[in-house]
Amino acid sequence: MNKTVLFGTLTIAGLTAAAASAATLDDVKARGHLNCGVTTGLTGFAAPDANGVWEGFDVDVCRAVAAAIFGDKNAVEFVPTTGETRFTALSSGEIDLLARNTTWTLSRDTDLKFDFIGVNYYDGQGFMVPKALGVTSAKDLDGATVCIQTGTTTELNLADFFRSNNISYEPVPIQTNAEAQQQYLAGACDVYTTDASGLAATRATFETPEDHVLLPEIISKEPLGPLVRHGDNEWGDIAMWTLNALIAAEELGITSANIGEMSAAPTNNPEVNRILGTEGDLGAMMKLDKNWAVNAITAGGNYGEIFERNIGENTPIGLARGLNAQWTDGGLLYSPPFR
Q: By Cβ atoms counted within 10 A, which residue in 18, 86, 170, 172 is the most buried?
């Protein structure tokens, strides 16, 4: 396993060196669409609907960036990636942006040479087991078989947790969430562990979700966010400030319902005016249209609207805002100023 990780790191470093000087914005504009890396399918975050149209929390971030650049939320091609292929896809230039439940870590930022452009979901690793097992704590899992996606931080956290609690486990390696779901339901593993949001999303697709429980332990910090390659700050700025625009819009009360009226003429709030382009031209600083943020917010609504529509409490996934509430509501969500 260590050899695999090392080989992957060196390969990615080499590819990054080749791609670092690319002017991504120019390439994206010339191509006519954004290539956005997502999961192979995780309900609520990124999955195709019955008509093959991608939808979800991460998908909406991709659409917002496409809209900021092109004024068209559909100017994006979604590229499914696994835990092991996602970084190579980004480093090689196959994708321009990775929005795939990816944890911001030091090694990914420095050794793999990526730039995380922010956090769009504050998460933590959890455990799901069949209710019939009668297990009420992850510390009771000594000797369990555990389905775990390879090439992820969850794989490393799992080893740390069992080691620190002096209990053993048998890993059952899987590549995708769909494979994990299949193996778990088939009884190939006693436990499935990944980010708690991913467990909730997976359980929501089960025929009888009430037959499965999420154990109370959250064993890690998992700040999930979109990322780009090192070496192209102009491109990173566009992705970063698009995400910030969605977050700030919620804080400032800009919604998909009122943005038409609020962007038609300056309001009494200067920051709202700067975001919506009715005062100044922040878009020009990023080589974007004056209405870049209007287009991004119109694509799928502000952060809160995107959250509630895809993974919120009124969806089958049923996630509360928790740490992902605005800082003004006791959460961690916070955008730097628009000025």
A: 86
Diameter of the chain by CA atoms? 64
Residue 22: pLDDT band with limits 50, 70, 90: low
Q: Is residue 48 packed enough to be buried (19+ CB in 10 Å), middle (13-18) or exposed (0-12)?
A: middle
The Cα 186–Cα 184 span in angstroms is 5
SS3 content of the chain, % helix, strand, coil (to 5): 45, 15, 40
Task: For residue 178, give every residue at least 6 positions away whose Cβ sits within 8 Å of its Cβ, in sequence order, or none.
Answer: 40, 41
pTM for the complete prediction? 0.89
**pLDDT, tens only, 75-120:** 999 999 998 999 999 999 999 999 999 999 999 999 999 999 999 9
Helix (H) or strand (E) holding 292: helix 292-300
Of 39, 74, 35, give the one whose Cα is nearest residue 57. Answer: 39
- How far the first Cα of the chain sits from its last, in Å, is 47
